[in-house]
Amino acid sequence: MTIYLPIAELPVVIFTVFAMGLAVGFISGMFGVGGGFLMTPLLIFTGVPAAVAVASVSPYMAASSFSGALSYLRKGMVDLPLAGVLLIGGLIGTAAGVALFLWLRVIGQVDLFIRIAYTLLLGAIGIMMLVESARAIRRSRRGKAPHVRRPGTHAWFMRLPLKMRFRRSRIYVSAVPVVAIGFVIGLLGAVLGVGGGFILVPALIYLLRVPTTTSVGTSLVLTLVTMAAATVLHAEANGTVDAVLAFVLMIGGTMGAQFGARTGQTMRPENLRFLLGLLVLSVGIRVAVDLVRTPAELYVLHPIEVRR
Question: What's the pTM value of the predicted model, to 2 decimals?
Answer without folding.
Answer: 0.73
